[in-house]
Amino acid sequence: MSQVSQLPSLVQRLSARQRALLTVLWRILPEARLVGGVVRDLLAGRQVADIDMAIPLAPEQVMARLRAAGVVAVPTGLAHGTITAVVDGLPCEITTLRRDLQTDGRHAVVAWTDDWQLDAARRDFTINALFLDQAGTLYDWFGGQADLRAGRVRFVGDAQSRIEEDALRILRFFRFQARYGTGEPAPDTVAVISRGAALLAGLSVERVWSELKQILALPQVVPAVRLMAQTGVMTVIMPEGVTLPRLEALEACQPPPDPLLRLAALTQAPAALATRLKLSKAETGRLRCIARTGAPDGPLAWLEDDQHAENVLRSLLVDASHDCLLAALWLCQAQNPPQSARAQACIHLRQRLSGLDVPVFPLAGRDALAMGMAPGPAMGRLIAQVRQWWQQGGCTASAEACRAELARILHTEP
């Protein structure tokens, strides 16, 4: 099925760089069509982040044509038929039409084809199975445009078959439902997802975290996570346990859509979860910092007194970033009644945080040496003791006061 569309008006919604990219690529590869997200978002009137194209040529032919025309062509996914063309620094993934030979719920063995409808039939959702050529013809074999208008996220063909081909489509469903769906999803689709939730255990944790992170970055995350819990999906992907009420309380405070802050609110075991999902070192550090600092018994638990609270915050800045403390203050606020002194202190301190500089401990080894101390572990231990005293005092003690404290310790130690 095809429908004529006004290509010029659609293309005008792209940025100037994206339009220039298409001009170059369509001159070299006139058979190529825009596919998936770019078509979907053009039709929905949304900003287009990435340009993807499909083509009925083998990837080697695509690469040869691009390079002959002087365009950078990178074989980013030859096994899956994908070449990345780069024009003036802007990338475009160009993928050869495919059909599935074999699927196992995680990986697919594919073969090239020149059948556009066959390629569309192997895609996940009708709103992603759309093609648009340079003449302005929209190719829509499965009713994707009507589903987009209706706010309906629907699997291409049989939902169970699509999920059995690749279980990650379960998580993708929740992401697209949250972004494009209106109202409740179809009960039969929810039932199929519930029956297939266990298949998620067979996916690599890297794929699961990549998709979960995108879900947790959505503007309205609670309905998606609530439905994921109801269908048993959360039990499979976060077996450490989840605390949905804490996430709901966090979102009621209207924080920015921060995936790691939301994960800290949702998980009952941040360290174990970070290890199992193989979060990056930076992600693991930030998640643990947010969860530890914003915990009910954490260092922000004594925020009722305003001056003391600012001292605590200044002390925490020595070992944690502004970013981590900002997120931890949101989490702390969410775990207290809205009008409580602690919740109000969290709000006040978020406003003050950006104006606070990271305190610098004013004592160094050379100061201890100047006082006659011998270098070694003992000196390091005493300096660390002074540093702890300095932090407990809100990091306000001067270099002179720190030297005096070091001298006091030296004279009182046996």
Automatic annotation (TrEMBL):
Gene3D superfamilies: Beta Polymerase, domain 2, cca-adding enzyme, domain 2
Gene Ontology terms, MF aspect: metal ion binding; nucleotide binding; nucleotidyltransferase activity; tRNA binding
PROSITE patterns hit by this protein: IG_LIKE
Cofactor: Mg(2+)
Signal peptide feature range: none
Keyword check for Iron-sulfur: no
Annotated Pfam families: PolyA_pol (PF01743), PolyA_pol_RNAbd (PF12627)
Keyword presence, Hydrolase: no
Homology family: Belongs to the tRNA nucleotidyltransferase/poly(A) polymerase family.
PANTHER family: CCA TRNA NUCLEOTIDYLTRANSFERASE 1, MITOCHONDRIAL
Protein name: Polynucleotide adenylyltransferase
Organism lineage: Bacteria, Pseudomonadati, Pseudomonadota, Alphaproteobacteria, Acetobacterales
